[in-house]
Structure formats: structure tokens, C-alpha cells
Amino acid sequence: MGWRVKGIFGGILVLGALVRLIGVTNPLLDDQGWRQADTASMALNMLGHLGCFPDVLFPLLNYDGVGPQRVELEFPFLPYLLAITWTILGWADIWGRLWAISFSLLTLWGIFECGRLIFSERVGLWATAIYAVMPLTAYYGRVVMPEPVAQAFSIWALYFILLWRKEPSSKRLFLAALLMSAAILAKLPQLMIFPVAIVSGFWPIKGKLRAMLKYCLLALFLPMLYYSWVHSGAGEASQFVSGILSDQVLEDPKIFMTQLQNHLWEGFGFPLLLLAGVGFLRMVWVAIPRRIVPLQKPKNDYGGFLGIILWCLISLIYLGAICIRIPLDYYLVPVALPLVLCAGYALDVFEDIPGFVLGVLLLGLLLVSQTLVNAPKYTWDERYLVQATWIREHTKTEQILILSDSPPMTLYYAQRYGIRLKSVEDQKAWEELQAIPGNYLVVLPGSRGEEFWNRVEAEYPQVGPGVYRIEKK
């Protein structure tokens, strides 16, 4: 990189870091606090036995049982790093956020390197800048969740397979396969990039079949070993390894078209989606051999070029098969990487000044949108901390807590184990409460209806802020 490119890239990293530092001191109670508390709970349950391999790497959560429960989840990269940090520096939520931001900045670097290798430095810079400020990746680049880790491993897995294609060596092939394993371990939906890596690294296959088979074996062995281990060890009552394998996707015919549309508009924005669509169509047009107009291959790596096209097609299938059935916006995060590369490629069509003006205008719109869309996500309810503090000070570790609803953040902050009332209907939840032995019922903020709480107040004494003693059961 020249000094000019280095300066622009450094400015993008600084901007990306500043955007992600918003709310960095928040407790894990802002948007998707339940998922962040899950990740942090795994780290909390690792403390004191960080060297006990491999058992320390089995995910343990604080709910659905009296003690830490074994569950089927992704490989705990972030929880283990967080547990090490807590061991050295003490328990504080900010360390989890700083680790997430670090992985997100690593993703920005990988986007630039991939864009530069496949297209040009200019495309890499535009793609990096867009990823740095768009609302979805700005917020989910600072959450204590697997998403920042999975994104970082994914883009670097693609980069190193491209690097191997350019200058083959056993060391580079092994590193590319290892990073692919890490991406799939970090988040199961990242399996979508495996065929992308195959096309990017080995197309055309002639003369590369042996290397491709070696890569496949190395890349898939660790994920198969780990996910088989957690599946067999978690038991029948465990959580699913991923939401994409739940009954909600496999069996429930319900779709959330309106929610998906809102998540796309809010997370990416219509101008960016339109620009990415233009970039994708341009790539398809360039990739199709034509007799009248000669094939205009990209400057650097045609295999990577075809890989991005395949990545876009897989992302469209992912949107139509998975995201439309799960109304959670963070399931869109895996789509962000091919989207920004397409958008960067579209901006490269224009001449210097028009392209620069259009790109800056898009970045300005994304920054404004990021401020407006993400502002509600940084809010959190103080009552969770008040309840958790009281529970930690007035209850014993061996006593059983029953939460009135499914969000588990109270258990994480109280450093206690407990059971959640999972029934949506209040009548069924009341019947469920009668069947569960426990010591305290914890009223989560905003949960259940008035009739449910009238029955609770008539039956049990309140001993703390939203905490009822039910030991007589």
C-alpha cells in the first residue's frame, strides 16, 4: 500500500472503532441482551478451570437447571478469551465489548485485503468504509456475541485461500483450512462460505483436485468433531446448536416477511442494497462469456471473482430459507460481507470524482441511519441490575431461582443458576410454576400479564424488588 492508501485505510479503522465504541460501557442489557448474557455466562462458568481441556470448552449456561447446564452451541472462542481477561483484570462487561470490537476491526482489515486481492485497492477501501459505518455491522461489531468473531474468521479464511491460489504452499493451504474451521466453529451458518472458498481457491479444479480434497478434510474435520462432541454430551434437553436447526425453521411454516424487510431497510438501507445489486449484476455480466463483447476478466483474481458471485447467490438462498423464518436482525450479519464487496465494486464503475461523491454521500447516509436506527438498541433497563444485586446479596448459591420469562440476564448478573418459565400463555406459565420446585420467583421487567401477577401476589410474599419467596412449595 502507498502512503495515501494507508492513510485512508487508517482513517476508516478509526471511524469504525469510534462508531463501535458507542455504548461500550453499557451492561449486557441492551438489544439482544439475552444472547450477550449467554455468551458471558459461558465465560463465567469457565473461571477457575481454564486449563481443564477439553471440558472447559464445553458450553455451560446458567438456566434450565439447578447447576450450569451443558448445551449445544458454537465453539466458545469469545467466552474463553473473556474468561482469561477476567482472571487477569477482574469481572467487567467492558472487556467483552472490547474483544468484540477488536475482532470487528480485524474484519475491516480482512475486507480491504480481499477487495484488493480480487478487485482493486479502491474497491477494498470502499467496501471497508461501508462495513465500518452501516447500522447492522456497527451495532453487532460491539456485542458480546459470536458474530464479530465469526465475521473475522470468515473473511480471513477467504483471503488466505485466495493467497494460496496466488502462491501455493502447504503452509498457506493449512492456514486457510484452519481459518475456515474456525469460522464454522464460531458460527454454524458460516458454512455458507465453504463452497465460496472452494470456488475461489480451486476453480478450475484441473490440477488442484488433490489440494482441494486435502483442504476439505482439514477444514471440516474440527467442526465435525466439535459439534458431534457437544451434541452427544449435551443430552436430550439441550439447546440447539444453532437457530437454523430449530423447529422454527425446519417445521414451522410461519414466515416473517415484514420483519425481514424492516431489518434489511434498517440494517443496510435501500441505497446500499440498490448499489450492491448493481455491483452483483455487473459481476454477473462480466463473468458470462459473450461472443460479441469479449470477456472482461477482473484485474487480479478470477477465481475469487466467481467466488463472490456464488457467495451472493448463497446469501439470497439464506435470506429466503432462514432469515425469513427467524425474526432476529443479527441473522443478517453473514450477508454483510458479500454485500459490501458488491457495493464497493459498483462504486468502482464511476470515474474518480463522480464515484467519490456518490461514495461519500452513501457513507454520510449510512452514518445518519446508524445514529437513528441504532439509538434505541443502546437503551437498557436498570431493574435487571437492581434485582440481580439483591439476589446476589440476599440468597444462597444453592437456592433455586425461577424466572418469570425467558431472558436470562438476571441469572448472569446475580451469578446464580435457575429455571425459566417458557410458556407464552400466562395460564400455562402459572401451571408450570406450580410444577417446578424452587426457592424464589423473580419477576422480570415487563413480563406476564396483570392476572398472573395478581395470583402471584395472593399466593407468595414479596421479599425483594420483584422477588417472591416460594419455598413453601
Low-confidence stretches at least 5 residues in length (pLDDT < 50)? Answer: 291-295
Strand ordering within the main sheet? 4-3-5-7-6
Q: What summary fits the major beta sheet?
A: 5 strands, mixed
How helical, in percent, are the residues? 55-70%
Question: Could you give the distance between the termini?
Answer: 70 Å
Please report which band the strand proportion falls in: under 5%, 5-15%, 15-25%, 25-35%, 35-45% or over 45%. Answer: under 5%
From the alpha carbons, calculate the radius of gyration and give it in angstroms. Answer: 24 Å
Word description of this protein:
- The longest helix is centred in the first third of the chain and has 26 residues, at 93-118.
- The relative contact order is 0.12.
- The chain is mainly alpha-helical and 473 residues long.
- Residues 291-295 have low confidence and may be disordered.
- A five-stranded mixed beta sheet has the order 4-3-5-7-6. Strands 1-2 form a two-stranded antiparallel sheet.
- It starts with a helix and ends with a strand.
- The chain has helices at 3-20, 33-44, 77-89, 93-118, 121-133, 135-139, 147-166, 170-186, 193-202, 209-234, 247-250, 257-267, 270-287, 302-323, 336-347, 352-374, 383-394, 409-414, 426-435, 450-459, and strands at 60-61, 69-70, 401-403, 418-420, 440-442, 462-464, 467-469.
- The protein folds into two domains: 3-377, no CATH class; 383-469.
